[in-house]
Amino acid sequence: MHRIAVLTSGGDAPGMNAALRAVVRSADARGIDVYGVRSGYEGLIDGELSPLSARSVSSILHLGGTMLGTARSERFLTVEGRQKAISALAAHQIEGLVVIGGDGSFRGADVLSHECDVAVVGVPGTIDNDLSGCDYTLGFDTAVNTALDAIDRIRDTAASHKRAFFIEVMGRSSGWIGLHSAIAGGATDVLLPERPTDIDELQHRIHEAFRMGKQYCLIVVAEGDDAGGAFEVAQRCSEGLAGVSHRVTALGHVQRGGPPLMRDRVLAARLGDAAVTALIDGENRVMVGEVHWEVVRTPLEHTWTAVDPPNRELMELMDRLAR
Ligand code: F6P
């Protein structure tokens, strides 16, 4: 392996820059040239590749977002788009490609690798934590802590006014952020895409919470819940919540930004390095991830076909402690 490329794709996640730095420096230490691709697959299609040196990734370790830029590429879903991307890789004599992203990015990488000789290795980078083959994806820990910081602040005002708050967190089809921020934030209930929501039961829980003497009530709503986002859920509850003062806060994209916390930085360092090692070892179509503290390689296809829903035991724990 003499020359590789690296790109970030899909929704940005804290830790992507740290992973990029690790890929570049690990490759540099092993005498491999690295090209950075701007704006994910969009930039690959347009041939936006340029060399990255160990110095060019200085002082990015602690930054949120991605220095390379990212995109959700419609063109890459077409054969014509991918042919252009393959031509760009060939023009730069790229032998291996590291893709830092989530399931959509990995699906794209998988298809690409069947259409050309470039080996692909994935690094799990998404705040959603919805990939199989790793305990945590890059950005998940930081995103949950960002949500938690907001939840703690909301608790202050909720308790002062004896209010119920519906707090929307990210996760269009994944409840990992919702469940973890609800447990860590001491929420009364959490609504997740992975389980159906019963509005009557939710109203009952809120009334019960105040009847039992709680001074506030926090309901965490994952944006992709079957009953809707936090505004919709609050609206649907409003009649049954007569006499209960309530407000809604949607945390939105603040959860995606900000400096990665220690856990995401160390994970990024490990996985960026492991991606380069995997390419050197001749691997193709695998994702590197940490499972029980060990770095493992999982066939790319398994990462999105064998996804674990949020741990059932944690859901039960959440319900048990919310009293
Ligand atoms: O990257 C994952 C994610 O943040 C999801 O949690 C969220 O539903 C989605 O991306 C939002 O995507 P966009 O920024 O494209 O609106």
Tell me briefly what this model is.
41% of the residues lie in helices and 18% in strands. The protein contains eleven helices and eleven strands. Strands 3-2-1-4-5-10-11 form a seven-stranded mixed β-sheet, sandwiched between helices. It has a four-stranded parallel β-sheet with strand order 7-8-6-9, sandwiched between helices.
Write the layout of secondary structure elements.
Layout: E1 3-8, H1 16-29, E2 33-37, H2 40-45, E3 49-52, H3 79-91, E4 96-101, H4 103-115, E5 119-124, H5 140-161, E6 164-169, H6 176-185, E7 189-191, H7 199-211, E8 217-222, H8 230-237, E9 246-250, H9 262-280, E10 286-291, E11 294-299, H10 300-305, H11 312-321
Parallel strand pairs: 1-2, 1-4, 4-5, 5-10, 6-8, 6-9, 7-8
Antiparallel strand pairs: 2-3, 10-11
Helix pairs in contact: 1-9, 5-6, 6-11
6-O-phosphono-beta-D-fructofuranose is lined by residues 10-11, 72, 126-128, 170-172, 223, 256.
Architecture overview:
With 323 residues, this protein is of the alpha/beta class. It is 41% helix and 18% strand. It is elongated, with a radius of gyration of 21 Å. The mean pLDDT is 97. 6-O-phosphono-beta-D-fructofuranose binds at residues 10-11, 72, 126-128, 170-172, 223, 256. 6-O-phosphono-beta-D-fructofuranose is lined by residues 10-11, 72, 126-128, 170-172, 223, 256.
Q: Main β-sheet: number of strands, strand sense, barrel status?
A: 7 strands, mixed
Strand content: 15-25%
Q: Runs with pLDDT <50, length 5+?
A: none
The backbone outline, from C-alpha atoms, is elongated
**What distance lies between the first and last C-alpha atoms, to the nearest angstrom?**
57 Å
> How do the strands line up in the largest sheet?
3-2-1-4-5-10-11
C-alpha Rg (nearest Å): 21 Å
Question: What count of helical segments does DSSP give?
Answer: 11
Task: Please trace the helix and strand order, writing H or E for each element.
Answer: EHEHEHEHEHEHEHEHEHEEHH
What binds here, in terms of ligands, is: 6-O-phosphono-beta-D-fructofuranose
Helical/strand content category: alpha/beta
> How much helicity do the residues have?
40-55%
Overall pLDDT level: 97
